[in-house]
């Protein structure tokens, strides 16, 4: 994959000419209120026979969109009394929570970690309201795209916000040191949660984030989910693509970034064909809190791969969010 986006100097100054809908905040206030009506506490079931000797695992279910159950794993260091700084992990496009053994990094470093299943994308949390997108399109980006009230990401983002509330109610969790984290779709979801939860989040790790600047992503991405959006626009909105983009504006990471306050660490791959670097910088350059960017010059959508976790752990340590740090 060659360099096909803007040079780094231009990326650092890049500003997207996209404005939030006038009722953006009211839309999300209403969306969350529909789900806060369900005040059920999360259920926590210890998982036995994991064959892990240093990690303890629990199967968690908490109320998400309109109280619908969402599955998650809670993984933590064995024998830790807490309260522990906690990482809430959101997942990439098409991924569910998988197995507990997929999520050993943060608990091995002393954190509790809540791994949130993505409704309809994994096996444990169905999407009970599938919207009105043609099924042949097959993707989540266009599910319910005719109306923001029915769009898939309204439900998923609400699930992710409610995960913060669930984490704050769990044992072993330090409610003052909750970090939201994810790569690709998960990074975009982390930005959304940061923009909707205010000071309930203490840090953000947004690795090569997706769901940012949909218009530019559709125009220049050569791989990944933006191609689904292009296919939909080609077949269904040839004369009026702005109707679809008008829906997606309610879910764009640019607008959540402008409302976030927690310190954040972004990353970007300058050869990323899935989330072009200008889409990542569009969100980074709007981020309202203190933010740093880790640039991987010759990386594709894998970003820094195995070099990413040490960068994130060092950043968490420097932000006072490591296990054993004071408040």
Compact description:
The chain is of the alpha/beta class and 327 residues long.
Proportion of strand residues: 15-25%
From the helix content, strand content and strand pairing, which structural class follows? alpha/beta
Number of helices: 11
Could you tell me how far the N terminus lies from the C terminus, measured between alpha carbons in angstroms?
44 Å
Q: Major sheet: size, sense and barrel closure?
A: 9 strands, mixed
Low-pLDDT residue intervals, each spanning 5 or more residues: 132-137
User: What's the shape?
Assistant: globular
Would you give an account of this structure?
This protein is of the alpha/beta class. About 30% of the residues lie in helices and about 20% in strands. It has a nine-stranded mixed beta sheet, sandwiched between helices. α2 packs across α4, α4 packs across α5 and α6 packs across α7. It starts with 7 loop residues before the first helix and ends in a 9-residue tail after the last helix.
Q: Main traits of this protein?
A:
alpha/beta; nine-stranded mixed beta sheet
Task: Chart the SSEs and their pairings.
Blueprint lengths: L7 H6 L10 H13 L6 E4 L8 E9 L5 E9 L6 E7 L14 H4 L3 E5 L35 H17 L4 E11 L1 H13 L5 E5 L6 H7 L5 H11 L5 H7 L4 H5 L6 E6 L7 H8 L6 E6 L11 H11 L9
Parallel strand pairs: 4-5, 4-6, 6-7, 7-8, 8-9
Antiparallel strand pairs: 1-2, 2-3, 3-5
Helix pairs in contact: 2-4, 4-5, 6-7
């Amino acid at each position: 994959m060659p360099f096909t986006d803007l040079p780094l100097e231009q990326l650092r100054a890049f500003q997207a000419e996209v404005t939030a809908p006038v009722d953006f905040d009211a839309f999300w206030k209403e969306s969350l209120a529909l789900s806060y009506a369900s005040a059920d506490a999360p259920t926590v079931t210890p998982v036995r026979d994991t064959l892990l000797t240093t990690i303890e695992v629990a199967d968690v279910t908490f109320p998400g969109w309109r109280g619908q159950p969402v599955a998650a794993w809670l993984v933590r260091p064995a024998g830790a009394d807490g309260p522990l700084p906690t990482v809430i992990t959101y997942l990439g496009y098409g991924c569910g929570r998988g197995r507990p053994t997929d999520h050993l990094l943060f608990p091995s470093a002393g954190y509790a970690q809540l791994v949130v299943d993505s409704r309809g994308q994994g096996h444990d949390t169905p999407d009970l309201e599938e919207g009105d997108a043609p099924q042949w399109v097959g993707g989540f980006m266009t599910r319910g795209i005719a109306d923001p009230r029915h769009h898939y990401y309204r439900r998923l983002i609400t699930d992710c916000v409610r995960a913060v509330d669930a984490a704050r109610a769990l044992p072993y969790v330090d409610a003052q040191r909750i970090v939201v984290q994810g790569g690709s779709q998960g990074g975009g979801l982390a930005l959304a949660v940061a923009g909707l939860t205010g000071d309930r989040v203490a840090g953000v790790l947004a690795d090569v984030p997706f769901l940012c600047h949909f218009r530019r992503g559709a125009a220049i991405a050569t791989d990944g989910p933006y191609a689904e959006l292009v296919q939909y626009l080609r077949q269904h909105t040839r004369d009026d693509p702005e109707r679809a983009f008008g829906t997606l504006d309610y879910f764009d990471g640019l607008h959540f970034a402008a409302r976030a306050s927690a310190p954040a660490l972004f990353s970007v791959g300058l050869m990323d064909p899935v989330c072009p670097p200008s889409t990542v910088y569009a969100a980074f350059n709007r981020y309202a809190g203190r933010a740093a960017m880790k640039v991987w010059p010759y990386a594709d959508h894998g970003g820094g791969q195995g070099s990413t976790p040490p960068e994130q752990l060092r950043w968490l340590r420097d932000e006072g969010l490591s296990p054993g740090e004071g408040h």
